[in-house]
Amino acid sequence: MSTAPPALLHRVGDRALAWLDAHREQFRLTDGDLATGRGIVERLKPVGELAVNMRVLAREGVAGSRQHESAERLLDHAWRDLLDGGNLLAELQRQEPLSPVPLEIYASLYELGRRHPGLEDAIGLARSTASWRALEMMPSRRLGLLNAERKIGLVPSGDVDQALAATWLGRMPEPWTVQLHIAYDVTHTVFHLTDWGAAPDRIPPEIAGYLARYLPAWTADWAELEHWDLLGELLVVDACLPRPALDAAMWERYAAAQAPDGAMPVQGAMPQGSREEVFDQVHHPTLVAAFASAMATSRALSSDVAA
User: Fold this and answer.
1) pLDDT per residue over 13-59, tens digit each?
2) Alpha carbon of 136 to those of 102, 169, 195, 201, 272: distances in Å?
3) Global confidence as pTM
4) What is the DSSP letter of 227?
5) CATH number of 6-306
6) Where are the alpha helices (DSSP H) in the chain?
């Protein structure tokens, strides 16, 4: 299948990164969040997603000089300002010793040279307990935890193959059962298994073949429903396969949904409302757009070089 032009792929990421940079202050936790403690984990999730995206951009090396500057600015902002140099994660780890969230967020920042010894000590203490291994979570989430442990140099607290086998994707069931929440389980299984696209060869050949067979139908369905957030994640999955399963038309349709300022709606058209309301609704699909663009652009450029 033909791939989309690298210029189109790059443009999606460039616009998305510009929007994220312009709205970086809205990732910040409010004084009310910190005072009450309510919803801190949910409010930290976008910060962790931001760190993952900056790690992908740095790894893939497809950003131009302006993008690179924006990415560095966002990364410094996330670590120094949003997370108080890691102190916020360390405090959350102390308050909720068995929460995997601080470790999951810290892992990408650790890979980019950020360190917080106090947080690492607290994580080490939690991991020394039987309770850490007894934590019940979705199998795809378990893969994410094991990957985070590996990224900061720890021996994973479980078996990756067993965790993968327990996922929906690992069982390769009937492809017509892919409802919305299952589709997100599929994409995140791939993300965690491949370390956010860094090691696509970790996808077993039989699962890669399963995905290649059914991705065109799945993406056609979600594009018809104009679910851009999920479609973006499925485009990342396609970039992780040995050979792309999707044609250029799917990327062109996805790119056409992006707003002129770089934001990507979750589904349908851009939402209306206050700046804060719109941010809450579109920050995730816009982060996904930056992720998908980096992966697809890198893949396209690598294919051009190989040809």
Assistant:
1) 999 999 999 999 998 877 666 555 556 777 788 899 999 998 898 88
2) 17, 19, 21, 28, 38
3) 0.94
4) B
5) 1.50.10
6) 6-22, 31-36, 40-60, 65-76, 87-95, 101-111, 117-127, 130-134, 139-151, 160-165, 168-171, 180-193, 205-224, 228-239, 248-256, 275-306
pLDDT > 70: what percent of the chain?
95
250 vs 12, 222, 260, 267, 303, CA distance in Å? 13, 11, 19, 15, 18
184-187: long-range pairs with CB below 8 Å, 24+? 184/230, 184/233, 185/138, 185/140, 186/237, 187/230, 187/233, 187/234, 187/236, 187/237
Residue 262 or residue 176, greater confidence: 262
Q: Is the pLDDT of residue 136 over 50?
A: yes
Provide the 8-state DSSP code for 267: B
Task: Tell me the residue type at 237.
Answer: V
Residue type, 11: R
CA atoms within 13 A on the CB side of 41: 11
In angstroms, the CA 13 to CA 39 distance is: 29
SS3 of residue 210 by DSSP: helix
Torsion of CA 187, 195, 43, 97, to 10 degrees: 120
Give which of 58, 2, 4 is closest to 297, Cα–Cα. Answer: 4
- Closest by CA position to 81, among listed 28, 12, 2: 28
The pLDDT value recorded for residue 304 is 58
For residues 284 and 292, the answer to whether their CB atoms sit within 8 Å is no
**Span 269-292, average pLDDT:** 95
Query: Which pairs with CB-CB distance under 8 Å and at least 24 residues apart come from 118-125?
Result: 118/86, 118/90, 119/86, 119/89, 119/90, 119/93, 120/152, 122/90, 122/93, 122/94, 122/97, 123/93, 125/97
Domain ranges of the chain: 6-306
Convert the pLDDT of each residue in 153-195 to its tens digit. Answer: 999 999 999 999 999 999 999 998 889 999 999 999 999 999 9
> Hey, what are 120's tokens?
């690492």
